[in-house]
């Protein structure tokens, strides 16, 4: 059965579907020896697809949960030679890449896969998969001060979806800080930090404790584990 070219590239583990579209538009993809730049081009099972002259080979689909440490770039390469998340997967034959991103100074749950379609499902804003964060913030917010987050705070001119938020602990000493749990399903750039800053409580330290049903229980920073078939199926079910 014919499939769209960008889907074939994503399933081969070369890139996410979005990146595959960029490769096609840039003229870096050939089908049966001819450059194809039209998105949505249909290819048959016997067609020979190559990216930058390298033929595609169907990789086994892999799904991992990484406990990303702080001080690691959520990328497959870095031009400043800093540590990237793929450095933890040097013993994995398939070329996995991160689903979404966590900031350099943010730790926590990060899915790694070579399934482009799955990655797109996990990242697309229309799919409401909860991500739970724990933040250490400056100041001690009251429930009333956090209420705008529950109602949908406005950030960068955009009203965000309502979040679940609660204060876990308060340090009333000299530093006056609090630990706050926040659950959202969107994934905009620096979103959590911007949300807390908007209500007057800048983030000092941030960790993503859970991605949907996936938690970091039993894991340490730098650890990764394979997702079970049931976990992958559950994530797809939540997205669909």
TrEMBL record:
Enzyme Commission no: 5.4.99.-
Highest taxon in the source lineage: Bacteria
The protein's enzyme class: isomerase
Domain RNA-binding S4: 3-62
InterPro entries: PsdUridine_s_RsuA/RluB/E/F_cat, PsdUridine_synth_cat_dom_sf, PsdUridine_synth_RsuA/RluA, PsdUridine_synth_RsuA/RluB/E/F, PsdUridine_synth_RsuA/RluB_CS, RsuA_PseudoU_synthase, S4_RNA-bd, S4_RNA-bd_sf
Gene3D superfamilies: Alpha-L RNA-binding motif, Pseudouridine synthase I, catalytic domain, N-terminal subdomain, RNA-binding S4 domain
GO biological process: enzyme-directed rRNA pseudouridine synthesis
GO CC annotation, single: cytosol
Keywords annotated in UniProt: Isomerase, RNA-binding
Pfam family, one: S4
MF GO annotations: RNA binding; rRNA pseudouridine synthase activity
Entry-linked SMART domains: S4
UniProt-listed PROSITE patterns: PSI_RSU (PS01149), S4 (PS50889)
NCBIfam families noted in UniProt: pseudouridine synthase
PANTHER family: PSEUDOURIDINE SYNTHASE FAMILY PROTEIN-RELATED, RNA-BINDING S4 DOMAIN-CONTAINING PROTEIN
Similarity annotation: Belongs to the pseudouridine synthase RsuA family.
Name of this chain's protein: Pseudouridine synthase
Taxonomic lineage: Bacteria, Bacillati, Bacillota, Bacilli, Lactobacillales
